[in-house]
Amino acid sequence: MGDWTLRQWSLTGFVLCVAMMAAALVMEHVFGLEPCPLCVFQRVAVIAAGVVFLVAALHGPRGRAGAIIYGVLASLAVLAGAGIAGRHLWLQSLPADQVPSCGPGLDYMLDVMPFQQVLNNVLSGSGECAEVGARFLGLSIPGWTLIGFLVLLVCAFGMLFSGRGRGTAYRWNG
């Protein structure tokens, strides 16, 4: 993998984003797990990263500047999602008496509040975000999502160091 092109890293990142969104939609529509506001924001981060990965793959810039721009944009989306997933895990780890009370639903907040206030309310958390809806191999959904974001971060960093994009790869001389 050390000599992958920007396009290969981008396509890998995009496929992983599609897989993460497919898993989220299966959990919601097949298993009936309703996403909390923090889950919705994590989905937005996955979609944002997926768009960057897809555009980078389609564009396939030749120079270092393109690799840096796309790598930084993908990294920002991924790091935002990882931060939200980390916050979600922290809320789930709180003792029951320290969990914030449940607030209004995300749809209601988006209808009646300015976006900045919605963002503040969602990131401060609510009781519904502290509930652990399901576990797989001992990890909650936000735990798996955080792992997914860390894998996506490898793809974003791969883009940063991929060199010239189309067909040529940056090789470590060391």
From TrEMBL:
GO MF: electron transfer activity; protein-disulfide reductase activity
Annotated membrane topology: Multi-pass membrane protein
GO biological process, one term: protein folding
Transmembrane annotation, as ranges: 9-28, 40-60, 67-90, 141-161
Disulfide bonds: C36-C39
InterPro entries to which the protein is assigned, alphabetical: DiS_bond_form_DsbB/BdbC, Disulphide_bond_form_DsbB, DsbB, DsbB-like_sf
Periplasmic side: 27-44
This protein's record includes keyword Calcium: no
Record keywords, A-Z: Cell inner membrane, Cell membrane, Chaperone, Disulfide bond, Electron transport, Membrane, Oxidoreductase, Redox-active center, Transmembrane, Transmembrane helix, Transport
Residue ranges that the UniProt entry lists as topological domain Cytoplasmic: 1-9, 163-174
Classification via Gene3D superfamilies: DsbB-like
GO CC annotation: plasma membrane
Pfam families: DsbB
Chief localization: membrane
UniProt subcellular location: Cell inner membrane; Cell membrane
PANTHER family: DISULFIDE BOND FORMATION PROTEIN B
Free-text function comment from the UniProt entry: Required for disulfide bond formation in some periplasmic proteins. Acts by oxidizing the DsbA protein.
Family: Belongs to the DsbB family.
Name recorded for this polypeptide: Disulfide bond formation protein B
UniProt lineage: Bacteria, Pseudomonadati, Pseudomonadota, Gammaproteobacteria, Oceanospirillales
